[in-house]
Input
Amino acid sequence: MKTIVLLMSLLLTACYLVEGDSYGEGILVPMPHSRLAAGRSHAMIIADDNSLWAWGSNWRGQLGDGTTENRVNPVKVLDDVTMAVAFDNSSMAIRKDKTLWAWGDNTRGLLGDGTISSRNKPVKVMDDVVHVDMARNYTLFVKSDGSLWGWINPNALNDFWPPFFLNDIVVEDRFAPVKLINEGVTFVSASLSHIMVIKEDNTLWGWGLISDGAVGIDPEVLRTHEDGIYEPSFIMNNVTHVLAELEHTSVITEGGELWAWGLDYLMTGTRMQSGIPVKLMDNVAMTPTANQSMMTITPNGDLISWVRMWNMDERDRSEFETGIRLSTLTIENPLLIMENVAEAVTGSRFDFMIIKTNDNEIWAWGNNDFGQLGIPSDLHDTVPLRNPIKVISLNDLTS
Output
């Protein structure tokens, strides 16, 4: 999660964080996990003592502080947290004892507590969980035995086909967790259209809607399927991290290579659709990509970007980057946004970004209509902050 530029896009995918070590300077150590998470208009961070803190919008209780008041300053949510994830106005966390906790908006049943009632405090929903992700209508989690489970929006069964379903899955209780894969899963990434998982042998598998090529299946294979892949299908080997997004997928391999595929502006400057993985670049440590833009953090902490904002005119683009003609950026000529970056995350609307530096400082820029940047909401509430601003030192967070 690299640089500090406001790259916005309509990507409906969760932004998650996991406890992890920092990058070695100048050494390629792919670390896909972050201490940061962001939803629609709120952000969260895991401090060095594994306490979880949150700030920004709280109208659905997504900050988990027992209120629905927006917060500019971080408020403590939980102790002993190893992973957290946010999607829109919902939040979840895994603690050291592998319990899964959830809070915030629950009108789509994402929290998994057997209700559709929103929560302004964390509630325990599951034991023995090691990884979790959320999409618009469902939540997926991996248990310590490598099995993949999930639950779905009770209304989604009637609304449209979500990628949650597999050929042999029958949902009898709309609130009960359903086992999707029996064993071998270590990581899952979910989007509105498809699901990607990494298995113990670092193989990548996927399923879901196929019209945009985001699953990564060879076009010849797709000709035998009308609308979707209904079972986990092998995509590629040697994958350490995957990010499933609305119209495309990106991965980092064991050697630090960045690959991507699907319907998007990926590399050439033209809108392309490819179900075949395309190698984009080498020497990548982390990538907080957005639906129509891509960013990477290099091992030495450079946050760079090449942008494909095809649905925005030049005036809109200038709002997001100071004086930069985004149409001139390419993967060969990327924009250096910020140096000394350890981790970064964009909000689920991709209109603000939170950065953690190697010095444990938190920086932010973008929209601030609910104080999600960690500064008063009357500052930059209508016009996005176009330059990074230091918000707080992680060392200042105390219990």
User: Anything to note?
Assistant: The longest strand covers residues 272-281. The CA atoms of residues 57 and 70 lie 5 Å apart. The first helix runs from residue 156 to 159. The radius of gyration is 19 Å.
